[in-house]
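Q: Sequence in, structure out?
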Amino acid sequence: MNIDANTRRPNGMNGLLIIWSGQMISGIATSITTFALFLTIFGATDGSGAAIGWWEFFFFSFYLLVVQFAGVLIDRYDRKTMMLVYDFISMMVMATLLAIQSSGKLEIWHLYVAAIFQGAGFAFQSPSYSAAIATMIPRKQYVRANGLMALLNDAPGIFGPLFAAVLIPIVGLNGILSINLLAFVFSIGALLFVDVPPTPLTIEGERSHGIFLKEAIFGIKYIFKRPGLFGVQMVFFVGNLFSGMALSYAALYPMILLRSGNDTQALSTVQSAGALAAVVAGVFISTMGRIKRPVNVILMGWIISSVFGLTLLGSGQVLLIWLIAVVIDSIFDPVVSVSIDTFLQTKVPPDLQGRVFAASDFLSQAIIPVTPLLAGFFGDRIFEPAMSADGILANTFGWVVGTGPGAGYGLMIFLCGIGGALVGLWGYFSPAIRNVDQTMPDYEIPPPVGLVRREQTSPVNAKPDANAGSMKKPGPKKEKRADAESRNTRKK
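A: Exactly. Output:
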């Protein structure tokens, strides 16, 4: 095992694996809890997709409100501390819900308040982990490390729904909340045990510091100044309008439950199958070590997963079709996630990554908080009545998605698949977006901190590249590198 001579704590890839193990355990426990809470909301509101949509709205709204400020703190302070924020907040939330549930006073609005705190805590998790990889792992291992981290998004989804279906009748919500609480204690212990190196300093990073509010929007300005990178973010922004509605719990849960006669086992099977497909894809990516032309892969992923995933999911009326559709859609999640993480880790100086990752998440997911509300509203109020046996759209689309309970949600998901495919095609036929991994050069490895300090005070100080974020030194101009290590995430 790689042990630091001073701290005697695991670091590097071994340290990352210890952190990963703790996060995997807490992730599975959280997935079990989330599934149980959604069933609680669904049952208490007579099968309302809008009620689940409100939970998602509160979670993602407060995630987006906090994430820009979290990016500044991640770049300013110790990254291990920032990585601990989500676990501590989530642990407190689970303890509070357990206390309320034990007293017999748990209501739906308590779950909405909990979603607010969980969303705020989650704003620290994704950017801090992505930025920490650049300090813990050599560049040649970025793809493998990001592949492991991508598994944290998908693997819990395999076991969460299945374990929840088994555990709910046995231990009830009290037991599930207790399990989740203990899992967070374990993940926090794993993080505290590992050494996370300090962030390397660069000239551009040092110059970027200033007033807190200006630093909060630094990442957005950084992306806006790079048209290709901004275009990629817009693909995610517009595409997430469609995938966010189609794959929100407010659409997927009601469609499957209404079409299957409220069969929770069918729902958990669909979710687990999608998560398993994503895990298999993530493991495969972790063994590759490199992704060529990542933006092309991302854009093709949007097109294929939308056409053969979402449209099939919406038109399917039996479990087998749903399983095939979810598997096709889920395969591309880790591909896109690993690509976007590696791309930013390679192109952006390390001491800017917290803010740039936060800005990337913000721009990609700014539309996400309203998509579950839109899905619940359009599903409950428009598409479901229109696709009833005598509805106004039954004759037009009934041959595609059928009619009756759940058909309206199916039609909405089907149309979202068409919209997502059009977004991918728009990005693919835009050269600035398609070729950004080649036109945006890698950042250069930063010199020792003392050298950075001397260069900052030197009259012949090097100026940062306005287009690439790379650090250039005085002397002859170097040819721009066009390494194809790239990253872009389809964030759901």
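The mean pLDDT is 78.
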